[in-house]
Amino acid sequence: MRFSDFIDGGRIAAGGLQDFATGLFHPTLRLGVTGLSRSGKTVFITALVHALLKGARMPMFEAHAKGRITRCYLEPQPNDDLPRFAYEEHLAALTGENRHWPEGTKRISQLRLTFEYEPQGFLARRFHSGKLHVDIVDYPGEWLLDLPLMTQSYQQWSSATIAMAKKPPRLTHAAPWLELLKNIKSNDPQNEMKALEIATGFTAYLARCRESDVSLSTLPPGRFLMPGDLAGSPLLSFAPLDLSDGEILAPNSLAAIMARRYDSYVLKVVKPFFHSHFSRLDRQIVMVDVLSSLNAGAAAVADLQQALNEVLSCFRIGENSLLSELFGRRVERLLFAATKADQLHHTDHDQLENILRTLIETTTHSAEASGARHDVAALASIRSTREAKVTQKGQEIPCIVGTPMAGEQIGKTVFDGEKEAAVFPGDLPKQASAALDGQAEGKLHFVRFRPPANIGESFPHIRLDRAIEFLLGDRFA
Amino acid sequence: MSKDYREPQAFVLDEAMPGKTRLATRSKARGPALEFEIEPALPELLPPLAMAAAAPRQRFRWLAVLVSAAFGLIVMGATLSIIQLVESFFVRSPYLGWLTLSLAGLLAIAALAMIVREVAGLLRLNKIEALQEKSSRAINLDEGQSADSALAELESLYANRPDMNWHLGQFKSHRDDILDPRDRMRLAERHLMEPLDVMAHKIIARRARRVTLLTTVTPAAALDILFVATQNFGMLREIAALYGGKPSTLATFKLARMVVAHLAIAGGLSLSDSFIQHFIGKGLLGKLSARFGEGAVNGILTARIGLATSALCRPIPRQTATRETLTSLLREVFNFGSDASKPKDISKMNPEPQD
Predict the structure, then answer these.
(1) Beta-bridge partners for A387
(2) Which of A176, A291, B218, B339 is deepest in the core (most CB within 10 A)?
């Protein structure tokens, strides 16, 4: 155990004590919403808040369905140093004239929802205020990928990153950067311009990976793609060099300065995020966009699996005891949501859940062992399609009907973003492992749809209520 | 592996709609689906139904033959004497003859109706048992098919009940939502079972209270056995009727037998309850008044029988709704002000907010 581990432990405990003290008077629940980019976090939070504020149809959210929640409203921002989640803006994007999905998460933000409810127990009715604050914390999924860096040295990280870049799906994107690296030796004298050049090349490689159709998920360090307010800072001007694990770096060499920046990146960017936000969550929902990975093929699915398992290994999972209430809370409920479930017919939802279950198998085992509860759900925070059956040559095909986004394509049909269409995206493999070994490749094509047009009072959804019930339901007992 | 899967495709609606005809016969063009489906891990299973115990192989029952034969003889004898009676009346006067004949016909019709009713009652009881099994299957295995058929049966069971009309409407409004089978069952439980549970709770509390009072007040010990028995049978019928069982006499007896079996099996679980019973009967209350102590014991017994009955008659086995323990009921039985039951009732009575 290193000295810094003690310090980290102390920080977690300090945060925990603070939360415990405030929690005594104002019961608060911190709900973390996480997922890699484009997995639907922003839409989830917007839909969740909208549904709760409007009192939407949520039959499976018991406290709400039974009418025990008397009021639900947005509270002014509790932490002055955290930006507020731009709920109104995102809602306007979804419902406005040219309805579209809101911009993705660029930096950390928070929103406080307050519930007033009727407690059920005899004692609770007399002594409990019947108020619960729920802090919803949103942060870019890329930042999560940084968490494993806390346990890696610069040398380890370098060799791992370069090894990954040399493997097929990434090689094409990495080629220019690897070319650049060839001219650099680790013991070159330090040179600011050179360092910047490599860092820019590295960032460009990461960006190419993300833009590509091969949706690659594991791309640390996350701030390179999502700098937030760090854009242009020297903290971000480092890159992996061709080093072997455990290599001793010459002082004042290019490698040494890179290593120094890497260390301060971990110290000044990753750790504060971990301590002030990540390690204080009570409940966590992990959004996973399985469908777009399936679209991209088996390599992308395997990549997703790796990214998920890396991210999930950073969670502090487990049941909370009095001691952990005091010295650092644990995530006691963990929901894995396979998002955008409205892109396929509900008969395939079980298969979708099975695929996700397979992807996160290792994590769920450890979650079970630690006593935390976890669940997997096929979810659509906003349901943009309806279901239909099309009969073709005597065969009934389960389809979904919606307005595909402009430019989406299936077979020879290209959509213009205006016309409605019935889409059959293919059958999900009956065996979840088929998604990983490439058997399903080419047999599936999921189309992205525009947000629903006439929503009425509240957005239609799939299993959003079940997700809320799982994440928050027990606190309304 | 050429084309054993269905290709992704799109139908732009304006083109697809006119030709969208549903064929009545579906051809199975998908080929043999011999694929292995992975079943998800089973979360906490509900305890198996108590009455599902297999009966041991029975020996030929001579006693049954004896009784049936004797009963047959008696019926035949009675029929013969009725025929003779009718004939002798015809000899006296045709008017009297017709009158007797029609009375005899009435007797036959009444007997037939009673038999039909008994059989129907037994069938209803069986149906609820089957429904219970189907629902627990749907809940435990998250199985769509059994959930669908269980819910359809539930709906038909309560379709003609004016008191369930509103609840049924509420439940049906969620029919088109995409829900997992297990959640669907949960929804049915909340909308259809929980209002009935509240009623059952009241019935049990009322009967238990009455038994307690009657036992305390009746002077003779033999009399209170009679009282307790009638009250309990009444309660059995009331609860069964509440959940849609509407038992006849024979069905009531069958139900009583099932309740006894259920109590015997569940007996181990309610050890703590019998401790309470012991304490109340022989201890504190017994010291205050021997009769009242006995009354309390009888009341608790009645409450327990009531709980067992409602567990047997409820078409959806209990899952999330907290198992009604004896203690929660006893609070209501002995707390005549019924303050403790208030929170629960309020939450149950509140209608679901409209969208």
Answers:
(1) A400
(2) A291
| Strand A131-138 versus strand A109-117 pairing type | antiparallel
Amino acid identity for residue A162 in this structure:
I
DSSP A381: S
Residues from chain B that touch A395, judged by Cβ atoms under 8 A, are 26-27, 29-30
Q: Which of A209, A312, A227 is nearest to A265 (CA)?
A: A227
Quote the CA–CA distance of A253 and B268 in Å, as a whole number: 76
Cβ atoms within 10 Å, residue A451: 21
One-letter amino acid identity for B280?
A: I
ipTM value > 0.95: no
Backbone angles phi and psi of B142, in degrees to 5: 55, 45
In order, the DSSP letters of B90-139 are HHH-HHHHHHHHHHHHHHHHHHHHHHHHHHHHHHHHHHHHHHHHHHHHHH
Which of A116-125, A395-404, B209-218 shows the lowest per-residue confidence on average (mean pLDDT)? A116-125
Distance CA A360, CA A286 (A): 11
- Full DSSP string of A130-162: -EEEEEEEE--HHHHTTGGGGG--HHHHHHHHH
Nearest in space to A223 (alpha carbons), one of A141, A148, A303: A141
Query: pTM of the entire structure?
Result: 0.77
The SS3 assignment for A405 reads coil
Asked if omega into A221 is within 30° of 0 (cis), the reply is yes
Q: How many helices (H) and strands (E) does chain B have?
A: 14, 1
Is the per-residue pLDDT at B39 higher than 50? no
The tokens describing A150, both together, are: 């806390």
Query: Angle of helix B221-242 relative to helix B194-217, nearest 10 degrees?
Result: 170
The CA distance from B41 to A376, in Å, is: 11
Q: What's the pLDDT tens digit per position in A2-48? A: 666 667 767 666 666 666 666 666 788 889 888 877 888 899 999 99
Residues of B with CB under 8 A from a CB of A: 5-14, 16, 20-23, 25-27, 29-30, 33, 35-38, 40, 174, 177-180, 183, 186-187, 190, 340, 343, 346-347, 350-353, 355
Query: Out of A55, A421, A424, whose CB is closest to B13?
Result: A421
Position B113 pLDDT exceeds 90: yes
- A269: tokens are 């960017």
Look up residue B192 and give its amino acid: L
Q: DSSP E strands: which ranges in chain B?
A: 9-12
Task: Note the pLDDT tens digit of each residue in A118-167.
Answer: 887 767 666 777 888 899 988 877 777 788 788 888 888 888 888 888 87
- The answer for A 317-356 residues in CB contact with B (under 8 A) is 346, 349-350, 353-354
Count the neighbouring beta carbons within 10 Å of the beta carbon of residue A152.
Answer: 17
